[in-house]
Design a protein that fits this description.
Strand content: 15-25%
Shape: globular
CATH class: Alpha Beta
Largest sheet: 8 strands, mixed
Radius of gyration: 17 Å
Structural class: alpha/beta
CATH topology: Rossmann fold
Number of helices: 11
Strand order of the largest sheet: 3-4-2-5-1-6-7-8
CATH architecture: 3-Layer(aba) Sandwich
Length: 266
Amino acid sequence: MSEQHRPRILSITNQKGGVGKTTTAINLGAALVSLGQRVLIIDLDPQGNASTGLGISARERGTTTYELLHEDAPLSAVIRSTETEGLHIAPATTDLSSTDVALGAQENRVFLLKDALAGAALADYDYVLIDSPPSLSLLTVNSLVASDAVLVPLQAEFFALEGLSQLMLTIRDVRETANPKLRIEGVVLTMFDQRNNLSQQVEDDARATLGDLIFQTRIPRNVRLSEAPSYGISALAYDPLSKGSQAYQELAAELLSRASPRKEPI
């Protein structure tokens, strides 16, 4: 695969659960498609919520990211279409939860996803978004090793920044040992309530600590973002005029506009 056709691979990662990670994977992917990009989401979370949220039921998943990592299945056998043209997904099942135990002693265990993507036909895509599990597990490390950069959803609540320090250390370790090109694409504030003083305080603290690593776009608390997965579609397909959908469209535009690297405080 020639370099000019190589997609940008982003790991959407936060070891803390409930921060809007999967919501961001689905809706940022859909928003990028609305801006003319071709997107593949790789579901690397054993919960498989990104797969469900894009309408791929458990009984329809067949070959999944479990087979991709554990059985050397080709990525082409895993990819599924979604209701949104130009948006595809490599689905996951709970089988992935055995990865740490089953592959923990394997010598190349942190390179399994990178190796799977290296030989894959990715020229059809502009972005690959990896939905990582809410932990710093072997699956998350595989995601980081395979990625060009990390996008971190950060919930606008008390203690939000505390868990971020461990993720930053993990990113630095991966950069030093397995993926020297790994960078932090940015941190996006999620579940932001502009009526809440705490949300504003978290934003102020985050910007003071991380500077321009924080995206200008903030993702609000929005009922449409919560409702859309039950219909198996993105919020942009469910209600494109909702505040949540508009925020992800703004985030996608901001992501595409970020051309120069930013100084990282790690």
